[in-house]
Amino acid sequence: MRSGSVQSAASKFIPASASLLLSLAWLAGPVVALAADTPSMANGDCWQVGTPTTCRVTWAGRSTFIYFRAIDQFSAQRPSWSTPAHDAVNAWNGAPGPQYYSFSAHSNDTWIYLNYSSTGQHGLLSGSDAITWNCNTSGYCQDTNSGMLIYYTDVYLNHNVLDSQGPSIIQNAVAHESGHGMGLWHNTTDANSVMWPSQSGIGGPDASDWGRYPGCSSGGHGTECIYGWGD
Ligand SMILES: [Zn+2]
């Protein structure tokens, strides 16, 4: 389900069985080959060191959902990014898996700031579409695949690159960086994954991103894995 339509909470389902990253800076250039797929940290850790007891979600098992809220800090500068950004958020929201994602508030939601930015700011290199900084409760932020509790996320969208791109690339950038905010690392084995590490036309998550393929214990690291839905 990758349509841009808004899905109601009731439409979210828990599949009986599920049919997947360098720095978080996302270079528009060719894919950098990695030796192994490293989409996230260990299973069920919410991309953090330690136990789920310090995870953002109430650890209630497979039926636990997690709520993310996109914070618009770009449209004042780039109103044309609004539609593709909303399409990206809706794609994550409507996909199976534990994640809900909306520009609207929900109790216990985790905020993903979508910021307008420029080359040279916040670690954005020339040619980088965007960069994501995940931050803990102490305000310490990192853009690397290291375990941490993600308390909030700053995504910086590089207008120097994105101004020359169409809406599908804008949507792809927002969907991809938002995946980092949810705790996902890059997927280097599934080119249809939104977490594929280079620019693509993919506008939302696939089963590698939200699901367990090929199994949480055998290389799958979608949101179902990192939020404890298990195999
Ligand atoms: Zn990335």
Provide structural commentary.
The protein is α/β, with parallel strands linked by helices and 231 residues long. 17% of the residues lie in helices and 17% in strands. It is built from five helices and seven strands. Strands 1, 2, 3, 4, 5, 6 and 7 form a seven-stranded mixed beta sheet that branches. Helix 1 packs across helix 3 (167-181). The longest helix is centred in the last third of the chain and has 15 residues, at 167-181. The radius of gyration is 16 Å and the shape is globular. The protein starts with 25 loop residues before the first strand and ends in a 5-residue tail after the last helix. The structure holds zinc ion (ZN). Zinc ion (ZN) binds at residues 24, 26, 176, 180, 186, 197. Zinc ion is lined by residues 24, 26, 176, 180, 186, 197.
Q: Would you state the CATH class? A: Alpha Beta
Global morphology: globular
Mean pLDDT: 74
Radius of gyration: 16 Å
List keywords for this structure.
231 residues; alpha/beta; Collagenase (Catalytic Domain); 7-stranded mixed beta sheet; 5 helices; 7 strands; 17% helix; disordered N terminus; binds zinc ion
Can you give me a brief rundown of this structure?
With 231 residues, the chain is α/β, with parallel strands linked by helices.
Task: Describe the secondary-structure layout.
Layout: E1 26-27, E2 66-73, H1 82-94, E3 99-102, E4 110-117, E5 128-135, E6 141-142, E7 152-158, H2 159-162, H3 167-181, H4 207-210, H5 223-226
Parallel strand pairs: 2-3, 2-4, 4-7
Antiparallel strand pairs: 1-5, 5-6, 5-7
Helix pairs in contact: 1-3
The chain binds zinc ion.
The site of zinc ion has 6 residues, from helix 3.
